Amino acid sequence: MLGLMQNQPLLISSLIEFAERHHSDGEIVSRRVEGDIHRYFYKDLAIRSRQVANALDALTIGFSERVATLAWNGYRHMEIYFGVSGSGRVLHTLNPRLHPDQVVWIANHAEDQVLCFDASFLAIVQAVHARCTTIKHYVMLCDADKLPQDTGIPNLISYEAWIGRQSSDYTWPVFDENSASSMCYTSGTTGNPKAALYSHRSTVLHAYAAALPDVMNLSARDSVLPVVPMFHVNAWGIPYSAALTGCKLVFPGPALDGKSVYDLLESEKVTFAAGVPTVWQMLLGHMQANGLRFSTLNRTVIGGSACPPAMINAFNDDYGIDVLHAWGMTEMSPLGTLCTLKNKHLLLSKEEQMKIRLKQGRAIYGMDMKIIDEAGKELPHDGKAFGDLLVKGPWIVAEYFKQSEEASAKSPLVDGWFPTGDVATIDPDGYMQITDRSKDVIKSGGEWISSIDIENIAVAHPAVAMAACVGVYHPKWDERPIIAVVKKPGSDVSREALIAFYEGKTAKWQIPDDVVFVDAIPLGATGKMLKNKLRETLKDYKLPQN
Asked: Diameter of the chain by CA atoms?
């Protein structure tokens, strides 16, 4: 017997329709590439998203064909999010921080038909357009009178001219909710990037889950600043959850320095912000140097890489901000876990609570996880056993885009579970903690050392701005940890002092054998440390002889 309920597909267009009908006066504020502040409302977003859909119809872009963006967080990018996916095309957010050769490879692999880009990225488009074999139309996100002349890009048109000639009358099509809605290429793989191809169903379910109280806890009472880029796993799904809840949205555009972010937080009365540790490091540095405080911000989600304890303490102790640790992957849409306390933890001491907050958190409904040993045997959730972390759920990839076309390709799944490449523990309360990436964990004398733990201790030192731990060959112990350190401007610390700083904070055998001071640690396109490049830089390094 089937239920006698209406059968309405979960489509991204339903989110913008809902926002227009029930949160029409919800505000969307954007700092533009032009430098000014733009304001409008969800009703305006809905109207202009329909104009985007009509503009794509006018170009005869077919169902499921890809429309790419090279753009910062802003209202025009948001309109493309809904206009493209809502009309049945596939949104493809390109990462402008990639090397131009990678941009070309990805655009060709995706078979992008249209590229919409911010003026900031004109030079990138000029450098790659001749090699992007499938892109037929180029749209610059600007007013008609701001379109530069003689760019060398064929048929270049301004965004406002492109959609301005279109009607706002448009009926969103109804189709299978499993149809592709958007795609993101992961930067966490070796070799060529792989594409996660999201569906309307997976995206809407993810938006629901992200808004839950034990996740981002979004509501129409919030003012939300997604510092995480819209080209990085769709800004962790916040644009969709925002439309679902009607919260105020504040887009930072290209200005992500500490002062610019702080000014937006204050002027727009932001209550919730989300981003990677490197951005918050700049924000905290600006505030500490200028004796500033938050007036409305009450919580922030930090993900993308492990959040150092010193950062959590700074937000919590110095400014009274609740820091929520999050974990996920491009292949997971991206949210998998978020670290909120359970009721029984509220009476614990601050020190005991911190032990929990440093973990990546509990699984969100819709996502399941387990850890296994090298033989594939499932390990207990006792907080001690650690193994390879596997996940499954309705917003986690089953295979990569075009994978079936590659003769040698294998499904990424293991008995229906996706292997994340992370090594983790899971405690009896369900809190997962990443101990390392499987390729970064250090094996010394048969024992495992977490590079993340070693890094967290280093960045707690007041003279350390950034630190990365890698293993180097040792004739007796196989590998030993060393720590590469970037000092804070105007600060100093010696090798001996930093190694002494580890005393009492970790087991003696886990203390790094050496400190290497560097000018910078290589970062990837999404702000993560590139340890493979760091290892390449240190390829001639030799451990000191004791």
From this structure: 76
Residue 331 bears catalytic tag: yes
In a domain? residue 178: yes
> Do 449 and 416 reside in the same domain of the chain?
no
Residue 443 known to be catalytic: yes
Catalytic residue among 134, 151, 186, 278: 186
Domain boundary among 424, 457, 487: 424
Cβ(23)–Cβ(220) below 8 Å: yes
Among residues 20, 65, 160, 331, the one annotated as catalytic is 331
Among the candidates 424, 456, 474, a domain finishes at: 424
Q: How many beta carbons lie within 10 A of that of residue 449, not counting itself?
A: 25
Q: Please write the tens of the pLDDT for every residue from 477-505.
A: 778 899 999 999 999 999 999 999 999 88
**536 labelled catalytic:** no
Q: Say what the pLDDT of residue 535 is.
A: 80
Q: What is the pTM of this model?
A: 0.84
Residue 308: which domain range?
12-424
- Structurally, the chain folds into a number of domains equal to 2
Please identify which of the residues 269, 443, 505, 533 carries the catalytic annotation. Answer: 443
Q: How far apart are CA 346 and CA 350, in angstroms?
A: 9
Nearest Cα neighbor of 509 from 529, 475, 481, 535 is 481
